[in-house]
Structure to design on (132 residues):
């Protein structure tokens, strides 16, 4: 019941005007499936932080799912480097921090990857902009 409510919430969020979303899925052995919703684009000011929500749905996976960010703009980092999505967590928030000397960029493409058991992984992209 709880799982169907969560999946319904994801479906509803994707249908709301302005929140249209895409997902990427990976299928593994034994009916395992890992799905990630494309994160929202982020705009940070130098010296500030932003929360980015990573939405992960899983089927047949009870272990933790590791989340990794790649291709962050110069001077931008993720605060929670070892944070994982635990069983029953569908949305995990991460904090992006832009240093005072972070490169000024618009629409830099960042990859976020969720990695489950047995090499099962899914990757989505989102844009990060850093302003003065």
């Amino acid at each position: 019941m709880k799982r169907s409510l969560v999946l319904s919430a994801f479906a509803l969020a994707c249908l709301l005007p302005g929140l249209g979303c895409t997902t990427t899925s990976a299928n593994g052995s034994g009916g395992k499936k890992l799905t990630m919703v494309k994160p929202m684009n982020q705009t940070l000011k130098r010296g500030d932080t932003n929360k980015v929500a990573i939405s992960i749905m899983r089927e047949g996976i009870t272990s933790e799912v590791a989340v990794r960010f790649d291709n962050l703009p110069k001077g931008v980092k993720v605060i929670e480097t070892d944070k994982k999505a635990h069983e029953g967590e569908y949305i995990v928030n991460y904090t992006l921090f832009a240093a005072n000397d972070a490169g000024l960029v618009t629409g830099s493409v960042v990859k976020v990857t969720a990695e489950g058991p047995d090499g099962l992984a899914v990757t989505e992209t989102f844009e990060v902009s850093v302003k003065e």
